[in-house]
């Protein structure tokens, strides 16, 4: 998707958000409010939401977020009664623990049969009572081949602390991903709850700060495509946008660090505040349908947990170890839902870092 389309989508989402704030019109009984990551649903190949409306008559009000912390904050405020939410693994666990998600009725989601068991049964929802895997991926490093010495990439995450690239380095603008990189650099678990290890990771991030041009989320697209920065940790599926020959920058590559990387699963869930649970489950079932899952996988670029999609994809994508890495051959770790006291500690350190 080009910048014009991304801006249009953002403005549309903002307009919808303003219309849904207290005192404004709320969604009617034949409308679902869906909250998803930016650039994370096909609106060109099939136009998933339009197709769903055409088939069911149910309208979709579609909003996007750029971090798990954002979706949690908006859902916590409660000013908008979201129906379908698509957060990542650890945030799913947190939201389950706080009663923010509804248990699913799988009789309404028959296409769940297509979901590969590899992506189910994780610690955040071990019985898969609340979540249906939607996309998966890993974190890694985007780099500009014109300016970054590929030999330096052998250092893995440490390259993000290399003074040679001062002020051309981007960093995640959320504490979970940023701390995970620092923890992996130090050889710790990215789920550590040890206060000394977290303090050591914070010290690494503070040491890195003078080298960082900006802390970003979706801003990474324009900055890497326009060569405003040369190095950025981000998610492998975004190669489809950032490295695209026509609308991205083919001089940007992606590498998987030798140290631990985060393996993540983003999941479709129903808000416990939704009064249209049956319709929300119908929408999730639609996302699990083979043709819809294929369109989303082709458009988004992330790994699909759908068992048939990889066989249907262009082999150049499905056989590419950067798009579909063998997670059994890498040092991967999925995020657990951390204890509240650990999250508070991360927030304290993050606040100090960003001051």
User: CATH-wise, what's the superfamily of the largest domain?
Assistant: Periplasmic binding protein-like II
Number of domains: 2
Largest β sheet strand count, sense and barrel closure: 8 strands, mixed
Order of helical and strand elements: HEHEHEHEEHHEHEHEEHHHHEH
Poorly predicted residue ranges? 1-25
CATH topology of the largest domain: D-Maltodextrin-Binding Protein, domain 2
Report the top-level CATH class of the largest domain.
Alpha Beta
The percent of residues in helical segments reads 25-40%
Radius of gyration: 20 Å
The coarse silhouette is: globular
Protein structure class: alpha/beta
If classified by CATH, what would the architecture of the largest domain be?
3-Layer(aba) Sandwich
Would you mind describing this structure in some detail?
With 355 residues, this protein is of the alpha/beta class. The protein folds into two domains: 3-135 and 264-318, D-Maltodextrin-Binding Protein, domain 2, CATH 3.40.190.10; 137-262 and 330-354, D-Maltodextrin-Binding Protein, domain 2. 35% of the residues lie in helices and 17% in strands. It is built from 13 helices and ten strands. The protein has helices at 3-20, 48-56, 68-77, 89-97, 175-185, 195-208, 220-225, 239-242, 277-287, 290-300, 309-312, 315-318, 340-354; strands spanning 31-37, 59-65, 84-85, 132-144, 169-172, 212-216, 231-235, 252-255, 261-270, 332-333. The strands form two sheets. Strands 1, 2, 3, 4, 7, 8, 9 and 10 form an eight-stranded mixed sheet that branches. Helix 5 (175-185) packs across helix 6 and helix 6 packs parallel to helix 13.
């Amino acid at each position: 998707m080009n910048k014009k389309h991304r801006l249009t989508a953002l403005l549309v989402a903002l307009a919808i958000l303003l219309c849904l704030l207290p005192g404004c019109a709320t969604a009617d009984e034949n409308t679902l409010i869906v909250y998803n990551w930016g650039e994370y649903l096909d609106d060109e190949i099939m136009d998933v939401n339009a197709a769903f409306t055409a088939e069911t008559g149910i309208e979709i009000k579609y909003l996007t977020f750029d971090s798990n912390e954002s979706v949690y904050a908006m859902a916590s405020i409660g000013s908008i009664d979201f129906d379908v939410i698509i957060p990542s693994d650890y945030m799913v666990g947190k939201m389950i623990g706080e009663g923010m998600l509804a248990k699913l009725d799988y009789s309404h989601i028959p296409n769940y049969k297509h979901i590969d068991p590899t992506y189910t049964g994780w610690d955040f929802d071990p019985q898969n009572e609340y979540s249906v895997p939607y996309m998966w991926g890993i974190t890694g490093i985007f780099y500009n081949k014109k300016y970054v010495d590929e030999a330096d990439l052998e250092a893995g995450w440490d390259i993000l602390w290399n003074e040679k690239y001062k002020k051309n380095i981007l960093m995640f603008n959320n504490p979970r991903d940023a701390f995970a990189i620092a923890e992996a650099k130090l050889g710790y678990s990215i789920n550590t709850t040890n206060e000394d290890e977290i303090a050591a990771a914070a010290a690494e991030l503070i040491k890195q700060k003078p080298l960082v041009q900006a802390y970003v989320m979706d801003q990474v697209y324009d900055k890497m495509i326009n060569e405003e920065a040369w190095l950025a940790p981000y998610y492998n599926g975004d190669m489809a946008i950032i490295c695209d020959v026509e609308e991205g920058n083919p001089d940007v590559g992606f590498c998987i660090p030798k140290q631990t990387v985060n393996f993540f699963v983003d999941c479709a869930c129903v808000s416990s505040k939704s009064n249209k649970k049956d319709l929300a489950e119908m929408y999730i079932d639609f996302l699990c349908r083979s043709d819809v899952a294929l369109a989303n996988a082709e458009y988004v670029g992330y790994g699909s947990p759908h068992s048939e999609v990889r066989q249907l994809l262009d082999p150049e994508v499905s056989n590419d170890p950067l798009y579909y890495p063998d997670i059994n051959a890498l040092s991967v770790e999925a995020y657990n839902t951390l204890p509240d006291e650990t999250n508070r500690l991360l927030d304290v350190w993050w606040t100090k870092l960003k001051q």
